[in-house]
TrEMBL record:
Coiled-coil ranges (or none): 215-242
Species lineage: Bacteria, Pseudomonadati, Pseudomonadota, Alphaproteobacteria, Rhodobacterales
Domain Histidine kinase: 248-458
Pfam family of the protein (one): HisKA
Protein name per UniProt: histidine kinase
GO MF annotations in UniProt: ATP binding; phosphorelay sensor kinase activity
Chain's gene name: tcrY
Enzyme class: transferase
Length: 460
């Protein structure tokens, strides 16, 4: 109850209403005290007028008038002279004098609080203005015991009434908050739990129906998010099914193409001029198909294995890559170069590092060959504070806009015709596995440059 939204509203409302009533209580008690004293002055004025109506009055009647007025004596000033109209023996000396004619609100509040905290009954003089212009001034003397008792009784009634009002107000607010806020919020939470049980079920998406604007906006936002998530899950499921099918097809197709590749090797030794002319093209086509199948299967694995880190000489890895690329270049006008310090040691997985550099160099070589223009590929490395910076730059035609927009996205970032776009996606995954980054620092008519940053780590 206490930890619920409605319960806290109930407690806070009770506290705030009580606080408001306390702030009202103080001036109310001050006003009650003033009214009490003014009533005593009015009674005293009536008693004095009764005496003035006759020349003489019986002492017993005078005592009864003072007792009824609740005062010990009455002094009336009708002109310049003050006249003691009614009097009786006083039990002591006057301790305080209160002038109600020009008393400010703060003065009345202060006097009221002072009276409440003073338990002893005191004899005080009260000065006021006679009602209906029956004189210039009237003074009475009275005991404060009855005044304080009346103030306490009035204050207790005010506090009880305040408590009842605060509890009633808090209860009504509790019901209102429960109806307008808590119940709709619980409904939203229930919808979220129901949706979380089967997010692919579109029938579980919340239907906004709140009447409170803020809650309606929250329900609308939740409905949009659930709709997008359901669609994304459906698309992911379809892609997963498609990926499984592609992987199975690629596996079987690779085996078929590998067998075909073995047969085509014999065609190259044929003496038939037509076969000699078409065989290399057939071999290249089959090789590309096998490469595409292998790339698809490699990417389709759940994830790349974690790198087995060791001390690797980068210059040797790059030399192996460039040597293999020299064979692939053949008669094309593409030159390769390396600018690697001979003793540069990296903490990396040698096999994965070879794949990283090989993919980037192969992409650069294919881009230059595809352009039909001569080109140059350079692999360089240098220290950069806490990381090793490895660059693979070429003087090729640069990446087209579509490839730059979908960079590192599998099946979308391919550049050459028939390419899968898996190479860069695989490279990025391998680099991240080493705790590094892969960025495209430049791509344009002057060439393309990829930058790999690998943490130096501890080589000791």
């Amino acid at each position: 109850m206490v930890n619920s939204l409605s319960g806290r509203f109930l407690i806070l409302t009770t506290i705030f209403v009580m606080l408001a009533e306390v702030l009202i209580f103080v001036p109310s008690v001050a006003r009650f005290r003033e009214s009490f004293l003014l009533t005593r002055l009015e009674r005293a004025q009536i008693a004095s007028l009764s005496l003035l109506a006759t020349d003489m009055i019986d002492p017993a009647l005078e005592e009864e008038l003072l007792l009824n007025a609740g005062v010990y004596n009455v002094v009336l000033r009708r002109d310049e002279a003050r006249q003691l109209v009614l009097s009786s023996p006083m039990p002591g000396e006057v301790s305080e004098t209160y002038d109600l004619r020009d008393a400010s609100a703060l003065t009345l509040i202060y006097d009221a609080l002072s009276r409440l905290v003073t338990p002893e009954s005191e004899l005080v003089r009260v000065i006021g203005s006679p009602s209906r212009d029956a004189g210039l001034q009237i003074e009475v003397t009275l005991q404060t015991g009855e005044l304080r008792a009346a103030m306490i009784d009035y204050g207790l009634r005010i506090l009880v009434l305040s408590a009842v009002i605060s509890v009633l107000t808090a209860f009504l607010l509790f019901l209102a908050v429960r109806r307008l806020l808590v119940k709709p919020i619980k409904g939203v939470v229930s919808h979220m739990q129901n949706y979380a049980a089967a997010p692919e079920d579109a029938g579980r998406i919340i239907r906004p129906k709140a009447t409170v604007r803020e809650l309606r906006e929250a329900e609308d936002a939740l409905a949009r998010m659930q709709t997008e998530l359901t669609q994304a899950l459906r698309q992911k499921e379809r892609l997963a099914q498609l990926g499984g099918a592609v992987a199975r097809v690629s596996h079987d197709l690779r085996n078929i193409l590998t067998s075909a590749q073995l047969f085509t090797d014999r065609l190259e030794s044929s003496e038939d001029p037509v076969v000699k002319r078409l065989a290399p093209k057939l071999v290249n086509s089959i090789a590309r198909a096998v490469s595409l199948c292998e790339s698809t299967l490699a990417f389709g694995r759940a994830e790349e294995p974690a790198p087995t880190l060791g001390h690797v000489n980068l210059a040797q890895v790059v030399d192996d890559v460039l040597e293999a690329e020299h064979l692939a270049i053949g008669d094309y006008d593409v030159s390769l170069a390396a600018d690697i310090p001979p003793n540069l040691m990296l903490r990396a997985d040698p096999e994965q590092l070879h794949r990283i550099v090989s993919n980037l160099v192969r992409n650069a070589r294919q881009a230059i060959i595809g352009s039909g223009q001569p080109g140059h590929i350079t692999v360089s490395a240098a220290a950069e504070e806490t990381v090793w910076r490895i660059e693979v730059a070429d003087t090729g035609p640069g990446l087209p806009p579509k490839a730059r927009e979908n960079l590192f996205q599998p099946f979308r970032g391919g550049v050459r015709k028939g390419g899968s776009g898996l190479g860069l996606a695989i490279v990025l995954e391998l680099v991240r596995g080493h705790g590094g980054t892969l960025d495209l620092s430049q791509s344009g008519p002057d060439g393309t440059c990829f930058v790999i940053r690998l943490p130096m780590g501890d080589l000791s």
